[in-house]
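Lecture notes, unit on protein representations.

Consider one protein chain, 219 amino acids long.
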Amino acid sequence: MFSDKYRLTREESLFLAKKKWDENVYCGMKMENRAVTFPQTKTILDGVNVPNVQLDDIQAILNMRDAWRYLLNEIDEPITLALVCKLNELIARNEALEWGKLRTGNVGISGTEYVPPIPDEHTVQAELEKIIHADISATEKALNLFTWVTRGQFFWDGNKRTGMTLANKLLVEEGAGLLTVTDQHMERFNELLLSYYHTGDAAALQSFLYENAIIGLDR
């Protein structure tokens, strides 16, 4: 359904990831409606103090930094439930009741009456393996991973960021580009995400992401 737009070498794929990871961190902040700009995000990632930025926003940016560092250092590590939990541990550190562990209680999602079920470890593991081992393109697997984690709400917090980072781990490993939602597409993304929460049908959201959020190197 979604063929790979890019077939990058390992060197090209890592170059792209290192060049664009700051934009992806900023994307994660905007997906959570955090009041930071891209220049502020980049400055914080460069280790420089930025006045008038909330401490919890700084924490979230630095958490995403650490998740990306882990991703790039462990790019060949197999995608397992343990890895998904590790990414969430880094991303949601000090933001949630618990981080890096499947949630054990109910959560709500703003703007929708959809209530995701409390995750069962064996079910989550089986669903993850089904996605990873499907006979489809790397891009389609990445989109499936992102939408699966996002609607599943497996963790107390940081699910969209965890899903996006996980999707990018697979894309970088396979040389298929990066998944990043830019400012100009964020409003439409949020509309389609809300619809996806309601219906459980990921087709429109995935098509939008495929057309507008998969980036790479054009040679």
